[in-house]
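Homework-ish question, so no full write-ups if that breaks the rules, but can someone show me the predicted structure for this set?
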Amino acid sequence: MATQQSRSAARMMLAPAVVLLLAWMLVPLIMTLWFSFRKFLPLRGGDLGFAGFDNYTRFISSSAFWPSVQTTLIIVGGVLLITIVLGVILALLLDQPMWGQGVVRILVIAPFFVMPTVSALVWKNMFMDPVNGLFAHLWKFFGAEPIQWLSQESLTSIVMIVSWQWLPFATLILLTAVQSLDSEQLEAAEMDGAPYLKRFWYIVLPHLSRAITIVLLIQTIFLLSIFAEIFVTTGGAFGTKTLTYLIFQRVLESQNVGLGSAGGVYAIILANIVAIFLMRIVGKNLDT
Amino acid sequence: MARAVSNNRKLLNTVIAWTIGILIFFPILWTILTSFKTEAQAIADPPVFLFFDWTLENYEVVQERSNYARFLWNSIIIAGVSTILGLIIAIPAAWSMAFVPSKRTKDILLWMLSTKMLPAVGVLYPIYLIFIELGILDTRIGLIVVVMLINLPIIVWMLYTYFKEIPGEILEASRMDGASLKDEILYVLAPMAVPGIASTLLLNFILAWNEAFWTLNLTAAKAAPLTAFIASYSSPEGLFFAKLSAASTMAIAPILILGWFSQKQLVRGLTFGAVK
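A: Not a homework solution, just the prediction itself:
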């Protein structure tokens, strides 16, 4: 058992991390809250006084707000759907016996390590460019008119790029879960003549449910705040302005800090709703 | 759940898996290949795959034109120092939570994780303002601190899950034998903790290297790392495919290799030990 002395030593060792994170969380948060109630235009007069809930109502009633929420939800939802469905299929496939399993796994995981600005630019120019992109060549080869990916199909393009980045993560986590599946149970079901789909539905999927939930929640948190992919591809044009990007524009481009801060408070509330669910799941795991 | 199957089945698996693997990897492969082409070959129609005149010209041009080395150096310093600083702060914290747990340990861990979920954009302006006030906008010091803080919860968590697996009996045995706290850490814990610390270092270096919100918004010219260097290629230089490819390859190659080594730790680190 820990002695009194080691307890106080432990507290001392914990203190720096706690104090730093507390400051990192509270100081900007309080400042954002403060700004959100001010009329604050750094380039046009600075802090012009108390604004009440003005920024909050203006942010929500601006014509860009609801479309940005919709865009955010489409991107998050689309990427989640694609990465989880393909991730389950890929995880099951990679678990099968084959030659060169290690190499295939390395190939599949690679996109996760590519920095977001690089992957967005490579996709934007080398694949989705309407004249010289690889897709344009492919379309022309089949006699079709090349698509203006990032202007006509902008949301689809962003979802494709981001899905490519996150598929490895989903696959890796689901694969880890698949590998812990009890093969005897599956074999018994197979002996009893259960067809593959039934085995998948009643044995594999329930086993994966926990891993799927984890993927869902962690990706949601990261996807809610994707920035670089939009920054270097469309710059928020063509209906790709997410809530994150809208706030970024309000704060840094139009220098309306009060309005942007109110938007930031909305984003924090949104992320917290997601976070509460994640905490519950991770928290449960801590007991076992 | 691997089971014995016929060779035919194995062949089929192999073919399907390799096809999908190569398709997923293709954008990276294509970028690397294009970086060795001339600009004309890079946009050739139909595209050339392997049979072109390989050249290193693009690498030379990128190197000369954009002072690549400085961005690379910034990336290495920011990712490296922030990770090491994070470890220095996190190791004692994780150690104390793993070996001297209290009633509040679980709450503290969860709270640390929750700071990770604060959307960066929500606090962008305050940080921006603090940076201006302190005169650390567009400095490596400023970015090191921010990147260290956003990764600190992950570092603490990873170390915690590793330390928890070190059996407590060994510690008790060493205490019985009269080892002091210093001996205990130095001779008993450290050797067992090194592998965990190493993989934490690796994964967090990768995360720091690829961080692209704060690095884009808090730097201009002096402290800009590779994420910003590549972003400057968004237009119109991005239309020069071969040079874009060379720059991209230079930015991702080191991390890709590190990443392949740490794939197992990735699961553990990013799921906070919830999937094993």
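Now go work out the reasoning yourself. Hint: Chain B touches chain A through 101 residues (CB under 8 Å).
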